[in-house]
Specification:
Blueprint: H1 4-7, H2 37-42, E1 53-56, E2 73-76, H3 79-106, H4 118-137
Antiparallel strand pairs: 1-2
Helix pairs in contact: 3-4
This protein binds a DNA duplex (16 and 16 nucleotides) through helix 3.
Length: about 140
DNA sequence: TAGGCCATCTGGTCCT
DNA sequence: AGGACCAGATGGCCTA
């Protein structure tokens, strides 16, 4: 497999060619990792809120502010709050991946045998934007 | 089997 | 006070 980011020569690319028609993405494969978001959204995070507590950390291992030497307030959360935070984080990562999928569809690729990884997508997008900018500036 | 990629969990920090 | 964001750790899956 060639190095997609470093080997792609955009000067050889022309708009409206098949190059600009990226292969269908695999946004739903990934071993079912894009699980049913409806179930995630259906979860009622609000119920996870309760009489939670912050605690002023008093242990010796408590973090210390980088700027000041005073002990920092350490957040102590219940397991229910932790679960709610996990759900929020999953939703956040899901929306991030959706954005990556949208970007993948905008970035021209060769008939690629596999989906671009996130880092490949970003690098290719950078190159593509630079290429298009160059075209605009030279016209 | 090693390395790459990804999802998930987790705790810390920032922001409202 | 709590949600958003971030980065590190971990484990699973896939491919060369």
């Amino acid at each position: 497999m060639f190095d997609l980011v470093s080997d792609v020569d955009f000067m050889e690319m022309m708009p409206n060619t098949s190059v600009l028609a990226p292969k269908e993405t695999h946004s739903t494969d990934c071993n079912g990792l894009y699980q049913d978001l409806t179930s995630i959204h259906a979860l009622d995070i609000s119920t996870a809120r309760s009489n939670d507590f912050y605690a002023l950390s008093s242990s010796t291992a408590s973090p210390v502010s980088a700027s000041a030497g005073k002990p920092k307030r350490k957040r102590v959360i219940s397991s229910i709050q932790r679960q709610a935070a996990n759900i929020r984080e999953r939703k956040r990562m899901f929306s991030l991946n959706e954005a990556f999928d949208r970007l993948r569809r905008k970035v021209p690729t060769f008939a690629y045998e596999k989906r671009l990884s996130r880092i490949e997508t970003l690098r290719l997008a950078i190159i593509y934007i630079a290429f298009m900018t160059d075209i605009l500036e030279n016209n």
